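Hi there, hope your week has been kind to you so far. No rush at all, and the record is pasted right below.
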Amino acid sequence: MRKRLEILGNLGNLGNLGILGHLGLLDHLERLGRLALLVALLGLVAACGGASREELASLAAKGYYTHLIHGEYEQFFEGMDQRTLSGDTTALVLSADSAYRSQMLDNLRQFMAQQEQEHHGVLEVRVSNATTDTVQQFTNVFLVLCYGDSTNEEIVVPMVERNGSWKMK
């Protein structure tokens, strides 16, 4: 499984290959192509029946963070678990027109501006590992953020499955 996660983690490098980068074609098309490739790969892995919870959660987490580093804050926000748990008094309802949503999008913009200032931006996201907590029913995905100043940072993204879709907890 570790080898499969490494392969999934390195999918971001595919956009750096070929003539598209040399011709300077729109970054938007390249991002759409990478996202389509990730979705196709996810479908292929799922169809083969060999996809583990860890692999599916890793693909989703990497996809959401790829949106974030490309400034696609709405798509990143959509990857957040918007379900409130019964009995959780601190949980916020993340409605489409809430002030909380607007604040979160502003926070994401500020976070990425800070990363640009401190580390020359985030250039790539890689999957390092993933583990599932069967008692708590979530999967921790370990992502490596590769910065423009050649430093790396590993972060943990707890992922939950909601109706067949993986969301960031």
Observations:
- The two ends are 23 Å apart (CA to CA).
